[in-house]
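Note to self: the last two entries modelled the partners one at a time, which told us nothing about the interface. This time every component goes in together.
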Amino acid sequence: MASLITCPHCGTRPKEEFTIRGDAAPRRPGSADRDEAWYAYVYIRDNPKGRILEYWHHAGGCRRWLVVDRDNLTHEVFGVVDAADFQRTEAAE
Amino acid sequence: MRYSAYSIIKQALSGNRLWQPAWREPEPKPHYDVIIVGGGGHGLSTAYYLAKEFGITNVAVLEKGYIGSGNVGRNTTIIRSNYLLEGNNPFYELSLQLWEGLEQDFNYNAMVSQRGVMNLFHSDGQRDAYARRGNGMRMHGVDAELLDREQVRRMMPYLNFDHARFPILGGLYQPRGGTVRHDAVAWGYARGANQRGVDVIQHCEVTGIRRENGRVVGVETNRGFIGCGKLALAAAGNTTTVGRMADLDLPIETHVLQAFVSEGLKPAIDNVITYGAGHFYISQSDKGGLVFGAELDFYSSYAQRGNLQTVEHTLEEGVTMIPGLSRAKVLRAWGGVMDMSMDGSPIIDRTPIDNLYLNCGWCYGGFKATPASGFCFAHLLAKDEPHHVARFLRLDRFERGYMIDESGKGPQPNLH
Ligand SMILES: Cc1cc2nc3c(=O)[nH]c(=O)nc-3n(C[C@H](O)[C@H](O)[C@H](O)COP(=O)(O)OP(=O)(O)OC[C@H]3O[C@@H](n4cnc5c(N)ncnc54)[C@H](O)[C@@H]3O)c2cc1C
Ligand SMILES: [Zn+2]
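The predicted structure of the combined assembly is written out below.
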């Protein structure tokens, strides 16, 4: 139910300790990229039904940005990683 | 059958055996001039005004569940037109004016109750912001009154005026705001559309949009293919799912909002009250239940049910505003999935596909918009040009930089 989130740094904590930024899928374009790329990044969302990745901030704990792997229909949580690790993996791919 | 005092007496004398169903249960025809996807408030009101105002009656409303099963039957029923921005205010004011005549217009008791909406403020800065909004409203010819603390106290003595962190300094009051019985709105529009020849087809889920040469020719459904001249989407929280069937890229995210109702109590809360230090809002239904809600669950969700944390947060806010609430028992809580847009304002527009039309982005304020949304969407469908009060509600406004960001929160859908 996403009432408990297992932070990679702090362990299992109640949802109340976190604030949610939203969809982690959009990739920030380069500053010189065309307006269309920026428009898509800022405003357009895939908004899928099912499993999604989301940025959460552990505001009431380690204050790290995290990426939560979650199902938005069942609210089941599959995993949580530090956002820096997430971005390194993304960059490597 | 026309409903009237006479019809009620006549039915009563005949033991209420002669009532007819309020709408037919037709089989889908092979082709319609206009198909509307979504039998919520907006889809049904669109069909009603298409038939009544624009004479377009070869219309079907396709609803995957039953009429009223979506947000139109899940909201906290508040109507108002206390918006600041030019893109919003005249549109919502048209809606309020349509609410004022709606029951006579569609001959159905929707229990429109203009009991007044009070927005409380708690700091000097917030008072200034509310004064500005009230002035904006009055410049548009909309009723607004800035009340001080004692004026609010006379109306609502049970509020927590002396809270140490969030004292109540006054309120912005719109006397013409209020509540409407939400499912009667769905039923009234469905009945009115049906009477004018519209097919309201329940349990008919659209699963695909068929296109030929860049135009929509019809929809695939669980009851077979249905052809159409124009296709109108009004699927609220499922807008992205339906839009994807036509490859639309949309500035929409789906989020869950919860609502609550208490046990029935004696009349206590006469108006609609919103808390300015959070986002709590409350009214009392004619049955006596306190109807209230607060913020989104803050994460994207298609679940139509919410998280316990939000339940706790809502009740904390409620008890902070009205300490006596702690004595009331909550009977039920539920959730609805809404189409949060990137600036918090709706979209009523054409799409890159010539005969595909879009109505979405209602966030959690779309119930009050039901009449104007249907009216303006019908106008767009019939005339291929926007109704003048809806001319700002464009799909491409994000790309052009003309956001209508009433709360100034930026492209962050969970905050609108
Ligand atoms: C808890 C809660 C409180 C709210 N409070 C307020 C309030 O106080 N004031 C206010 O103004 N607004 C409020 N709202 C917002 C308001 O209810 C919505 O913005 C509005 O109802 C959305 O428009 P609708 O009525 O057409 O949506 P819906 O009733 O959700 O209609 C959309 C319909 O489309 C159907 N559909 C979806 N996909 C398909 C498909 N593929 N095929 C066929 N049919 C499909 C759905 O089943 C649904 O019935 C609230 C919402 C919620 C959930
Ligand atoms: Zn942590």
